[in-house]
Amino acid sequence: CGMCTPGFVVNMYALLQENPKPTAEEVERRFDGNLCRCTGYRPILDAFHSLATTDIEDLAGAPCATRGERGAGAATLPACAGGCAKGGSCKKAEGGEAAGIDAARARREAGGVTFYRSGDNSTTWAQPSTLAQLCDLMSSSSSPYEIVASNTGIRGVKKYYDNAAWGGDDAGTAAAPSETLLINISRIQELNFVQQNSNGVELGCLTTLRDAIEALADSGGVKGATLSAHIAKVASQQVRAAATIGGNLSLHIKYPAFPSDVATILAGAGASATLVDPETKKESSVAVEDLKSV
Question: Which tens digits make up the pLDDT trace of 116-157?
């Protein structure tokens, strides 16, 4: 029917921007989060396998790396020469749209706090670019505020919980967040990092679940591999690419009904979290399993 097609296409486009020559397994993993009720997935899988390097199921003819056309009896993929056997011009991108996206990101230079207001002036949206600016906003605000990054949690999962868990009553509608100040922390580079050291892996609170999966897998050892494999089962490809470690733990703290796999496995692994007091800007460390009591 075509209803699922845009999701599959965008998912595969994102994969090719990250890895122009994915394996068949990597292509299949990107099916996560996309549902089709018509086809049983086989035709979609066949189509997107043409984007992968040689598939064991297709030894009779491997696809051209650029156009997905199959050559008779080809066992390996030759280097792309910029064209194909049919004489059509090669459509291989030289930067293209991805370069424009990267350039736009590069223009987001750190500066002062940026403020936006809703049309009815009921809500203010603030974007600090440093941790110090964030602390100042939190300590000086006289209005209730909510800290957001990708904001996949409150708007994305609250429908799964009973009303009481989200501040409503059992008979009424679950209460949506009513803060008049939303603080977007996604531009604070001090909170977005991955470090490997003698103590293990250190993740900034803005580290996405996807980046955490890769970092833990690369850390070596059974513990890192186990954590990585479990987080890969949380949510979907699209959500893991945006949702953050810090956001997940925050939902775990604020909403007891939120069943956070991330908090559970990090607590089981003996992980700790570094907290910053917005008033004094002093740091302290607390075990993940004790976060709710802080």
Answer: 888 787 888 899 999 999 999 999 998 889 899 988 876 666
Angle at CA 19, nearest 5°, toward 1 and 106?
A: 100
Could you tell me the CA-to-CA distances from 110 to 20, 113, 279, 290 in Å, in that order?
Answer: 31, 9, 22, 34
Backbone region of residue 197 per phi and psi (left: phi > 0; alpha: psi in -120 to 50; beta: other values): beta
For the segment 55-110, what is each residue's pLDDT rounded down to a tens digit?
555 444 444 544 444 444 334 444 545 555 444 444 443 444 444 444 444 444 44
C-beta separation of 189 from 229 below 8 A? no
In DSSP notation, 123-166 reads: -EEEE-SSHHHHHHHHHH--S-EEEESS--SHHHHGGGS-GGGG
Residue 86, amino acid: K
Q: Which tokens go with 202?
A: 């250190």
- The Cα 25–Cα 22 span in angstroms is 8
Relative to beta strand 181-184, strand 272-276 is unpaired
